[in-house]
Specification:
The complex is a heterodimer of chains A (391) and B (357). Chain A is α+β, with helices and mostly antiparallel strands. Chain A has eleven helices and eight strands. Chain A starts with a helix and ends in a 20-residue tail after the last helix. The chains are: A alpha+beta (391), B alpha+beta (357). The complex binds flavin-adenine dinucleotide (FAD).
Chain lengths: 391, 357
């Protein structure tokens, strides 16, 4: 299907479901059922099995019609990571249960992967899941869990077999955050906000039907999630979308702050941001029908560096005003906007871009090893049973 | 809005493999190196074989004797030429001079398409698309003036000379072409002196044609720079996969892995910028000028970095005359200055996208 019939389909949908009179949730659910949620998803799963590039056209038409959206900024992990992983590895029952309320935003998701002892070395997670009849009983501590305070479900990586080497003893679960064994404690970050949390899991009971993929296959499933995470973090929009747009607008608004040195730096970063946007577009064309691979890591590397340099440049440009900060109050935000708030916030928040979703150092290792085929890092613990690794 | 295709079509891939095969056969790097010692015997035969597969007329419409292809295909050819630092006048004659003549009804265009003649635009190779053009005076029907550092003049038999009252085609026999010793001898420059030379008027309005030609050159040289960068990356990765020190393969050291990962990231980004410049140029997209400057601002520095990394990461052998890395370093550094430096293109972009000093 090209744009014209798709456009007709959206128009027909809007004719039946008038956004100005239809209840918001009812509208979103109907949009999902019509296959207009994410058109690259399969029929029956909110999509039409079309190319992903067509999605932006659909979004544009809904925006023009004044339709309510599913507030994608509030469910970044759900939409960008949980959904594609469930689609790839889930049973029919799991896809039926989870995808629709995830897309409509009725159920927000978070990611219970990182632990105090398992960051870059994610395969080292020690949260234990033990089988108990048809259920799993999970205990352990997770950390840096963004949005856990708002989440109804989590994607969870846990150890099911400590006798296996670390990559082989992991299993992937879909965890109900309302289970009484789940405790979420805010962790304040350098911006003053508590966007992420510590999550303590104590005998959390997960039904066997919420295991995603096979027992022991958790590493493979988690990698699918991470590849999607890296590409969703690096996602671009139109020219001057994202951080460059904010800084370019400041530049245009404040000619009295210009200096030749800042001008050259701004233009260098403008070029880099534009090239990075094109690189994203090109990568999406490559991946139009496949799954994201390690190439997305290269894009996330550029994205993080450019966002950090731009936000730093903006503070210098603002000069005296760059010495100020809007608000240090501890709040627990219901969504994250990298380009939101004030310049000081943007500068500090951008520091996380090279840590979250795999640090830039780890991404360089991935590119070097999986794309360029260079030898792996020296790994002393790779083949040992996990329980024998020095902690 | 339909997004421009930033990948390669099947036809483009076919074209690439035929050019690559031909270059593997006809453009040995040792022979390219010998150009620096004055042995240019490679050049004519190589150019003739490119002409034989129709490359000289790629951008010329079919009804004027060319292939009627677009900037997208020319860009793919340039990627391959960049991979071998090929010493042929494709960019100068088949892209830049040809583009300058697209609005002219001169028979010269047909002759360029068939490779019967080779042309060069008489501007300094360092000139950006928005640079001041050289002052050649027209007195009666005689042309007088000097244009320094012209690329492609040595290979050309006709020069395109811009004056305030038109673009002239001037036979090289009517001018003095003085070859220069250059940093990049694979695209050797020459000073051109016109001392009352006669020429044929091919276009009344020279300036827009010259600017359009230089813009096309800037847009498409990015693909040459991309091909060059890819060669440097691939060759360096391959070397570090086998070269051992400290009892292990050097490519396993993280300091080097990270440098190569960064270079790969740059090359992939460069591919997007170069394809975008080629695609907008092919479509006559209103964004083509911006795209050309973005591509030059990005790929000029990328190619230099790729070549400098290739030299450094080969160690001592990278410093030798014998290893081809220096051919790419010299080409990359010259390309960086050619058709406007990256800084010059950034300033131009500042005006084009309303980010003023
Ligand atoms: C804002 C933010 C939000 C986050 N949200 C979530 C979330 O929602 N869910 C979740 O599960 N996690 C989340 N994370 C966690 C994130 O994935 C980890 O912080 C990250 O993987 C790094 O792990 P670490 O903090 O343990 O650092 P470490 O792994 O201890 O790394 C410390 C330093 O050493 C470097 N390093 C580590 N190993 C190597 C190596 N082999 N070679 C070279 N250098 C190396 C790292 O790059 C880093 O600079 C978030 C993090 C941030 C900052």
């Amino acid at each position: 299907m090209s744009t014209a019939p798709l456009q007709r389909k959206v128009e027909e949908f809007l004719a039946v479901h008038d956004p100005s009179t239809t209840d918001r949730l009812e509208f979103l659910r109907a949009r999902y059922d019509e296959g207009l949620a994410w058109v690259h998803y399969p029929v029956g799963r909110g999509g039409l099995g079309l190319a992903q590039e067509l999605q932006s056209e659909v979004e544009r038409l809904f925006v023009e019609a004044g339709a309510p959206d599913n507030k994608p900024g509030h469910n970044v992990i759900g939409l960008g990571m949980a959904a594609p992983t469930i689609l790839e590895f889930g049973t029919e029952e799991q896809k039926n249960r989870f995808l629709r309320p995830l897309w409509t935003g009725e159920e927000i998701w978070c990611q219970l992967f990182s632990e105090p002892g398992a960051g870059s070395d994610l395969a080292n997670v020690s949260t234990r899941a033990r089988r108990d009849g048809d259920e799993w009983v999970v205990s352990g501590q997770k950390v840096w869990t963004s949005g856990a305070q708002n989440a109804r479900f989590a994607i969870l990586l846990a150890r099911t077999d400590p006798d296996e080497p670390k990559h082989l003893g992991l299993t992937y679960f879909l965890c109900d955050m309302t289970d009484p064994g789940v405790e979420v404690r805010p962790l304040r970050q350098i911006t003053g906000e508590a966007e992420f949390n510590e999550v303590f899991l104590t005998d959390v009971r997960i039904p066997g039907s919420q295991r995603l993929g096979e027992v022991g296959q958790g590493w493979k499933v988690a990698n699918a999630t991470l590849n999607n995470e890296r590409i969703s973090i690096g996602k671009g929009a139109d020219r001057e979308g994202g951080m460059i747009g904010v800084v370019a607008q400041t530049w245009r608004r404040r000619p009295e702050l210009h200096t030749p040195e800042l001008h050259d730096r701004l233009l260098r970063l403008w070029v880099e941001a534009e090239v990075s946007r094109l690189t994203g577009a090109r990568l999406r064309q490559k991946l139009a029908h496949g799954q994201p691979g390690p190439e997305g890591s290269a894009m996330k590397l550029s994205f993080a560096r450019i966002a950090q340099e731009l936000s730093g440049l903006e503070l210098e440009l603002l000069g005296e005003q760059g010495l100020h900060y809007s608000d240090w109050t501890l709040v627990r935000p219901d969504h994250v906007d990298f380009t939101g708030r004030d310049a000081g916030y943007r500068y500090l928040r951008a520091k996380g871009n090279s840590i979250e979703g795999g640090t830039s150092e780890i991404l360089r290792n991935i590119v070097a090893e999986r794309v360029l085929g260079l030898p792996g890092e020296h790994r002393v613990d790779k083949d040992l049973p996990w329980k024998e690794i020095a902690k | 809005m339909s997004e421009l295709d930033l990948l390669y079509t099947e036809i483009e891939e076919d074209l690439r493999s035929s050019v690559r095969d031909l270059l593997a056969d006809r453009c040995e790097l040792d022979a390219v190196t010998r150009i620096y010692d004055g042995d240019r015997s490679l050049v004519d035969g190589l150019w003739k074989s490119l002409v034989d597969i129709g490359l000289a007329g790629l951008l010329v419409p079919e009804d004027r004797g060319g292939q009627g292809a677009s900037a997208r295909e020319a860009a793919v050819v340039l990627e391959e030429l960049g991979r071998t630092a090929a010493p042929v006048p494709f960019l100068t004659s088949s892209v830049i001079a040809t583009t300058a003549l697209l609005d002219s009804d001169t028979a010269l265009l047909e002759q360029l398409a068939t490779g019967e003649r080779v042309a060069a635009l008489a501007v300094p190779w360092s000139a950006a698309p928005d640079a001041q053009l050289p002052a050649v005076r027209l007195e009666g029907d005689r042309l007088t003036g000097t244009v320094t550092s012209v690329a492609g003049a040595i290979e050309a038999d006709v020069l395109l000379v811009a004056t305030g009252s038109g673009l002239y085609a001037v036979d090289v026999s009517a001018v003095t072409v003085k070859p220069l010793v250059c940093l990049d001898m694979t695209r050797q420059l020459a000073d051109v002196t016109l001392d009352g030379a006669t020429g044929a008027l091919v276009l009344v309005d020279a300036e827009p044609a010259v600017r359009r030609a230089l813009d096309a050159g800037a847009a498409l040289m990015a693909s040459e720079q991309l091909g060059l960068s890819r060669w440097c990356l691939e060759t360096t990765v391959a070397y570090l996969q086998v070269r051992k020190q400290f009892g292990r393969v050097l490519g396993g050291f993280q300091a080097l892995k990270h440098r190569l990962a960064d270079l790969y990231t740059g090359v992939e980004s460069g591919a997007a910028a170069a394809r975008h410049a080629a695609a907008t140029s092919a479509e006559g997209d209103p964004d083509a000028t911006v795209a050309a400057s973005i591509a030059q601002a990005y790929l000029s520095d990328l190619a230099v970095r790729a070549a400098e990394e290739a030299v450094q990461l080969h160690g001592g052998i990278g410093m030798t005359w014998e290893h081809p890395a220096h051919l790419y370093l010299k080409r990359a550094k010259s390309d960086q200055i050619a058709l406007g430096t990256p800084g010059r293109h950034r300033v131009r972009l500042g005006a084009l996208v309303d980010l003023r000093p």
